[in-house]
Amino acid sequence: MALKTFMVSLAVAGAAFVVPATAAQLTVGFSQIGSESGWRAAETTVSKSEATKRGVNLKIADAQQKQENQIKAIRSFIAQNVDAIFLAPVVSSGWDAVLKEASQAKIPVILLDRDIDPSGKDLYLTAVTSDSVHEGEVAGDWLAKAVGSKPCNVVELQGTVGASVATNRKKGFDTAIAKHPNIKTVRSQTGDFTRAKGKEVMESFIKAEGGGKNICAVYAHNDDMMVGAIQAMKEAGLKPGKDILTVSIDAVPDIFKAMTAGEANATVELTPNMAGPALDALIAYKDKKTAPPKWIQTESKLYTQTDDPQKQYDGKKGLGY
Ligand code: AHR
């Protein structure tokens, strides 16, 4: 074989190894929620790189936290006749009509990181999400172990009202602490998954609870709200991580920074790589007609101050958070 032909064959073989045959032609529209948190920013970054790895053309529409913008984006993806639609649904209800339109256009929809109401079950191909009830349980179990039999008043920073993950993370935590009558959630309010609102709501909790004296722990549905709450505690002269325990969800680099400083206690990891498994499922579906399971579950791992937070921070800081 002439060297040139051999080199071309190698290049083709190499390309075929990295990019599956039909994936190279796929265009996927992704209706992303926005950029409310560090986790969300990382999910967007990772989605782009996972698509590039597979030779998929990923078009991302940022909905700026608004369901109406997500619905518009989905309709625009349908009009463009994309090969599939990825949807991170800001809230769980109100999707049936637009997903029926996608289904009529024979465009498969894959949910990323949040769920929709059961009425929409037949309207998407698969959902790549964590078990968000379990995340809340892991957080509650950690707290129960940390406080033992000591009375503990908890304040809770909830995620976006109506988001599946907010409902489920509350449910899981409530179930876990219900087994421990010494632990009570005394205040619970949404901080909309943002750092600024987390701080604002925590300031009001501190004022309402004797300057923080009556608070034993903060449970936040994400790390960004906890980072805001940590700031509020410090400004009020409290020592987060010591005077008041913290447990939250996501495992973003900034929470590991706070853990390294002794200002945060625990986090439950949520992988930002939802798109990778979703793209693999889509490619298998398109290439081999293999139907994925209805739920592709991602892992939920607990990290505490004993898990070398500095190392976790170093490992995550360049990943788009
Ligand atoms: O749906 C996942 C949640 O959305 C993340 O935990 C949170 O940080 C984000 O905004």
Poorly predicted regions: 1-21
Helix content: 40-55%
Give the SSE string.
Answer: HEHEHEHEEHEHEHEHEHEHEEH
- CA radius of gyration is 22 Å
Number of distinct beta strands: 12
Helix tally?
11
Strand portion: 15-25%
Bound ions, cofactors and other small molecules, one mention each: alpha-L-arabinofuranose
Mean pLDDT: 93
Characterize the main sheet.
6 strands, parallel
Write the layout of secondary structure elements.
Layout: H1 3-18, E1 27-32, H2 38-53, E2 57-62, H3 67-79, E3 84-87, H4 96-104, E4 109-112, E5 126-129, H5 132-147, E6 152-158, H6 164-178, E7 183-190, H7 195-208, E8 217-220, H8 223-235, E9 245-250, H9 253-260, E10 266-270, H10 275-288, E11 295-297, E12 300-304, H11 309-316
Parallel strand pairs: 1-2, 1-3, 3-4, 4-5, 5-11, 6-7, 6-8, 8-9, 9-10
Antiparallel strand pairs: 10-12
The protein binds alpha-L-arabinofuranose.
How would you describe this protein?
- By secondary structure, the protein is of the alpha/beta class.
- Mean pLDDT is 93; it is low at 1-21.
- The chain has helices spanning 3-18, 38-53, 67-79, 96-104, 132-147, 164-178, 195-208, 223-235, 253-260, 275-288, 309-316, and strands at residues 27-32, 57-62, 84-87, 109-112, 126-129, 152-158, 183-190, 217-220, 245-250, 266-270, 295-297, 300-304.
- The strands form 2 sheets. The protein has a 6-stranded parallel beta sheet, sandwiched between helices.
- The longest helix is centred in the first third of the chain and has 16 residues, at 3-18.
- It contains 11 helices and 12 strands.
- The site of alpha-L-arabinofuranose has 13 residues, from helix 2 and strand 9.
